Amino acid sequence: MSKSTERAVLAGGCFWIMQQLLRDRDGVISTRIGWIGGENENPTEKNNVGHAEAVEVTFDPDRLSYRELLEYFFMVHRPDLGADVVGTGYRSEIFHASEAQRVVAEQTIRDVDASGHWPGKVVTRVSKAGRFWEEAPKQQDYLQRFPIGCPAPFPRQREPETAS
Q1: CA-CA distance, 140 to 134, in Å (whole number)?
Q2: Cβ 16 vs Cβ 54: under 8 Å
């Protein structure tokens, strides 16, 4: 591991899912979930005016560049679906920690858009990282502790039995 680490804050939908997807990349040292980009202090699930669910990623830039991390981020969520479709809390946004990160983020968005990978235009916003409000410990690493995830919001249909 190098002597320096870098921090990225990425919002791309449910933070439990994004944390699970981002944590195992080579070069990722740690992840934590929380809220960023909103209007109120101490946001919670019930009170998070304008905040996005986000993952703070600490990574080793000698093993994983910021650009490589963003390229993976754009493969594992729908950056072409705006807040009007997915909701403000689940919006796609990159919160940059430096001017260099801002430049890389904007170039990566242009390249992803030009690739035609997603059916629509990439609507991911790039904003300066403000305060990251860490979510409660019981919410951290949720899908590692509960691999089945959340209960379905509606009853599941039973699979029809097949004749042998």
Answers
A1: 9
A2: no
Is 14 annotated as catalytic?
yes
Catalytic residue (one of 11, 14, 22, 122): 14
Q: What distance in Å separates the CA atoms of residue 139 and residue 106, rounded to the nearest whole number?
A: 31
pLDDT tens, position by position, for the chain (164 residues)?
557 999 999 999 999 999 999 999 999 999 999 999 999 999 988 999 999 999 999 999 999 999 999 999 999 999 999 999 998 999 999 999 999 999 999 999 999 999 999 999 999 999 999 999 999 888 888 887 877 776 666 665 665 666 65
